[in-house]
TrEMBL record:
Secretion signal span: 1-19
Protein's recorded name: DUF538 domain-containing protein
Domain of life of the source: Eukaryota
Listed PANTHER family: F22D16.19 PROTEIN, T31J12.3 PROTEIN-RELATED
Gene source species: Populus tomentosa (Chinese white poplar)
Pfam families: DUF538 (PF04398)
Keywords carried by this UniProt record: Signal
C-alpha cells in the first residue's frame, strides 16, 4: 500500500476514532449517578459538581465543585460544602466524610457520616445525629439559595428533626 493510500485511509478513519472516543468519555457516569448507584439520592450533593474520583476497590470517593458552596436549609440550618468533598462510599453508607459542615445555633459541625436507613438519611456530626426523610434529597440544592431559588418554593420542603440523638 502506498503512503498516499495509507494517509487517505487515516484521514477518513480519524473522525470515526475521535467520535467514538468522545462518545465513550461522554458516557461516563456523573457523580450524581455514582452516588445513586450506592442507594443515595442525588440531592446530598449540590448542583455544580464538576468531577469526581472513585476507587471501586476501597470505596474512596471525592467530588469536586468549582469553589466552596453554602446555603440555608429551612431557615434554621446553614450548610457549607468545601470545593472537595471526600469520604468512603458503600451501599447505604458514607463514612469518614470531610468537606461538609452544618451550622447549628452558633457552631459549625462537620458532617462525618451519612447512613441511609430505609426512607430516612441519618446525618452524623460525631457526637450527635439527626434523621431526615429521604424525599428531602430528591432535588439538588443550588449554591447560594438551596432549594428556594428565585423566591420560588419547591414542592420538596425540608422536614427535619434537630440534632438530638446521640451515639
Amino acid at each position: 500500500m502506498s503512503f498516499t493510500a495509507i494517509f487517505t485511509l487515516f484521514l477518513i478513519l480519524s473522525p470515526l476514532v475521535t467520535s467514538s472516543s468522545l462518545s465513550f468519555t461522554d458516557n461516563l457516569p456523573t457523580a450524581y449517578e455514582i452516588i445513586a448507584g450506592y442507594n443515595f439520592p442525588i440531592g446530598i450533593l449540590p448542583k455544580g459538581v464538576t468531577g469526581y474520583k472513585l476507587d471501586k476497590t476501597t470505596g474512596e470517593f471525592s467530588a469536586f465543585l468549582n469553589g466552596s458552596c453554602s446555603f440555608s436549609v429551612e431557615g434554621s440550618y446553614q450548610l457549607y460544602y468545601k470545593s472537595t468533598i471526600s469520604g468512603y462510599i458503600s451501599d447505604n453508607r458514607l463514612t469518614s466524610l470531610s468537606g461538609v459542615s452544618v451550622k447549628v445555633l452558633f457552631f459549625w459541625l462537620n458532617i462525618v457520616e451519612v447512613i441511609r436507613n430505609g426512607d430516612e438519611l441519618d446525618l452524623s456530626v460525631g457526637i450527635a445525629s439527626a434523621s431526615f426523610p429521604i424525599d428531602n434529597f430528591y432535588e439538588c440544592p443550588q449554591c447560594g439559595c438551596g432549594l428556594n431559588c428565585n423566591n420560588v418554593e419547591l414542592a420538596t420542603k425540608l422536614r427535619s428533626n434537630p440534632f438530638v440523638s446521640s451515639f
